[in-house]
Write a structure and sequence with these properties.
Number of helices: 10
Structural class: alpha+beta
Oligomer: single chain
CATH architecture of the largest domain: 2-Layer Sandwich
CATH class of the largest domain: Alpha Beta
Helix content: 40-55%
Number of strands: 6
Number of domains: 2
Radius of gyration: 24 Å
CATH topology of the largest domain: Beta-Lactamase
């Protein structure tokens, strides 16, 4: 399975395109924030020159730097003459003809991971509607980055599990792997990023077999049957499973009947035990 992380810069570029249209701002640009709390500007919509490209924004400088450091929105209506910010980037902003500027951070778990700018080529207060729409775009980007962080964490757990496949899987590890699969399946259904969804499905397949040796001659479960049984293994009731998977309780019962028939068992507990025996669950 290819576990390479989808490009966060591509996600940023998509958010810039959509955000500019929604907010009515002619100039949009932004960058991802690295470990040293500085942003490298790599995404641009509506710019007329290359003067902003690959500019590094320090967290102690300029409007964007303040947004990075404080994790909150900043806006100035007359950038060149504003007394509210430092002016290290005046040459670059003026070179693009921007006179009013907005900077919005994308914050993940208390840390700024990207900064999004919106600009006007005239002195004018950027309205609340535009600010709110760019803030919504930044929150969407933060959500995508957080999902990707979680996928990376889960992939690392899978790698650790795979390294120890020859050892018996402790009950706590078994539950953690099943829980990871269930959570990733939920994330896959919620993300609008096709590349990320594809990667999540690949991770799901690995999770299904982590720590197990599947009996090729034994029963086989469909992906949905596996999802239902995974929730059963976590102790979920039919109503909770229905809510989590967006199914009707009667549909969950139908899946369980099919699962028990395939596994030749009489109840839920026996189904989980049999699934583990056949290598369908850890």
């Amino acid at each position: 399975m290819d576990t390479k992380r989808p490009s966060d810069a591509d996600a940023l570029a998509a958010v810039l395109r959509a955000g500019g249209r929604n907010a009515g701002l002619p100039v949009m640009f932004g960058g991802l924030v690295g470990e040293r709390a500085s942003a490298l500007l790599t995404g641009f919509v509506g710019t007329r020159s290359r003067i902003l490209q690959n500019l590094v924004i320090d967290s102690s400088r300029g409007l964007g730097g303040r947004a990075i450091a404080e994790g909150r929105v900043g806006a100035v209506a007359d950038y060149a003459n504003s007394s509210e910010i430092t002016h290290e980037y005046d040459r670059e902003v003026a070179g693009e003809g921007i006179e009013s500027l907005l900077a919005v951070p994308a914050v993940v778990r208390g840390r700024t991971r990207a900064v999004i700018y919106g600009g006007l080529r005239r002195v004018e207060l950027i309205g609340d509607l535009a600010i709110n729409r760019i803030a919504t775009s930044a929150a969407r980007l933060a959500g995508e980055i957080e999902i990707r962080d979680e996928v990376d964490r889960r992939v690392a757990l899978i790698a650790e599990s795979a390294a120890a496949q020859s050892l018996p899987v402790p009950a706590g590890v078994s539950e953690a792997i099943i829980s990871s699969y269930v959570e990733l399946a939920d994330i896959a259904r919620s993300t609008a990023d096709p590349a990320l969804a594809e990667r999540l499905h690949g991770v799901e397949k690995v999770l299904r077999g982590a720590g197990t040796a599947h009996d090729c001659d034994g029963p086989h479960l469909s992906p949905r049957e596996y999802e239902v049984l995974s929730h059963v293994a976590l102790g979920c009731g039919n109503g909770e499973i229905a809510d989590r998977l967006g199914l009707r309780p009667e549909t969950v019962k139908s899946y369980l009947r099919t699962i028990m028939t395939k596994l030749e068992v009489r109840n839920r507990r026996e189904a989980v035990v049999a699934a583990r025996r056949h290598g369908l669950l850890v």
